[in-house]
Design brief:
Length: about 400
């Protein structure tokens, strides 16, 4: 049975709301879960983003889950008795490594002291921060909001990390956690009432709080995480920014979900929706980007820059190349990287620097793709190409068919 960590704060309520999986659940504050995962007491846990980065060589990430906010998050507050630009000392909680580093990124001039000592401001997280907002009239500054103002990106406070060697069943458990979040989103009142009973906050307050939390680990969240790690490195909190390594990319079980379907053709977009603006799509659980070059040819790549894992769908198309928004690596239609701007000679690119390109073909007004070498050509559908028939586009619709 998978030993699954659960942060003991109310922010976990949606993820565990209707979790349909047999797990050995272990509760703790973030720093506690970080330590337990790293010393082998847990198989999977939501851990601080910065702690993940410091131990990324031993960990893998779940590709679909994180804990983030796009703007105010309420549960991470800097309570300051002075205007922020005059804060020189911050008393920091020992419970959250990421929030402490985020404070350093946002207020690099401020010296940190243990919570309880005299300081210009104090950092509170989790339930202590939520309670303080009710009880303490001192000005509160939401770190999620300050981060959005600084970068324009979501702030990823925690990622779901698994220690290597990976136990079986991780992706099935991730699917159950994602399903729990989906159910929680569909039943916001019930979630708020249940959580109110368990954690003791007013249900109306919790309903608004849950709306601010995000659990999807999408392209913007990944860009936000990498930006945070780069800034953490710049203030001396991280030696280097690691490559984000995911369970799905190399786990045999990921492919085991759809072994036959990967070499079949699937429609991934209407042709009319594919343009010189990259668009993210998903096929068999894999994030893809579709784009059209200046000659009008459509392409399908994995939505992942092989430099640091940024989503290429956040980038741009320039001529016949797709360009990563983060450090500007350029990829040709073949997937080959053609330029790395940071090199003395940007065109001296290592041969292994390639984006993952997938087979793609346009027909019947659709863009089709196959994740592996297709075993058969696209089937003929004469009616779709006959002038005697009229094609009516509809959807896409979401079906639960797995
Ligand atoms: S992440 Fe650095 S160029 Fe894409």
């Amino acid at each position: 049975m998978i030993r699954l960590g659960r942060i003991s704060y109310v922010n976990m309520a949606p993820v565990f709301y209707r979790l349909d999986a047999e797990v050995d659940e272990v509760q703790g504050v973030p720093t506690d879960l970080n330590a337990r995962l790293l010393n082998g007491e847990l198989d999977l846990a939501p851990i601080s983003s910065i702690e993940y980065a410091r131990h990324a060589d031993r960990l893998r990430l779940l590709p679909r889950l994180c804990v983030s906010s796009e703007g105010a998050v309420d549960s991470i507050q800097l309570v300051a008795r002075k205007p922020l630009e005059q804060v020189r000392t911050v008393a920091v909680t020992p419970e959250s490594a990421t929030s402490v580093v985020l404070t350093k990124v946002l207020l690099p001039e401020a010296h940190h002291v243990p919570l309880g000592e005299e300081a210009d401001a104090k950092l509170l997280i989790g339930d202590a921060a939520l309670k303080s907002a009710f009880e303490d009239p001192t000005p509160h500054h939401d770190l999620g909001r300050l981060w959005l103002e600084r970068t324009g990106l979501p702030m990823v406070f925690a990622v779901w990390a698994c220690a290597e060697p990976l136990p079986p069943g991780l992706l099935e458990l991730e699917a159950a956690l994602v399903e729990s979040v989906r159910t929680a989103r569909a039943e916001p009142e019930q979630l708020a009432y249940d959580s109110s009973e368990r954690y003791g906050y007013p249900a109306g307050f919790l309903a608004r709080y849950f709306e601010k939390l995000r659990y999807r680990f999408g392209p913007r969240e990944r860009a936000g995480l990498l930006t945070f790690l780069e800034l953490a490195r710049d203030v001396g909190e991280l030696d280097e920014v690691p490559e984000l390594r995911f369970v799905a990319r190399e786990s045999p079980s990921a492919r085991g979900n759809h072994p036959a379907l990967r070499s079949c053709w699937h429609p991934v977009a209407y042709s009319e929706d594919v343009s010189e603006v990259p668009v993210p799509v998903e096929l068999l659980g894999e994030p893809l980007v579709v784009w059209r070059d200046s000659a009008g040819t459509a392409h399908v790549f994995s939505d992942l820059c092989i430099h640091r894992g940024t989503a290429l769908s956040l980038g741009t198309v320039e001529g016949d190349e797709i360009v990563c928004p983060y450090h500007g690596w350029r990829y040709a239609a073949s997937g080959a990287c053609t330029a790395i701007p940071q090199l003395a000679d940007p065109t001296r690119v290592p041969a292994k620097a390639r984006a993952t390109r997938h087979e793609a073909v346009e027909r019947f007004g659709l863009l089709w793709a196959a994740l592996e070498e297709p075993r058969l050509p696209l089937p003929a559908v004469p009616e779709l190409e006959s002038e005697a028939w009229r094609t009516v586009s509809c959807g896409p619709y979401e079906w639960r068919c797995d």
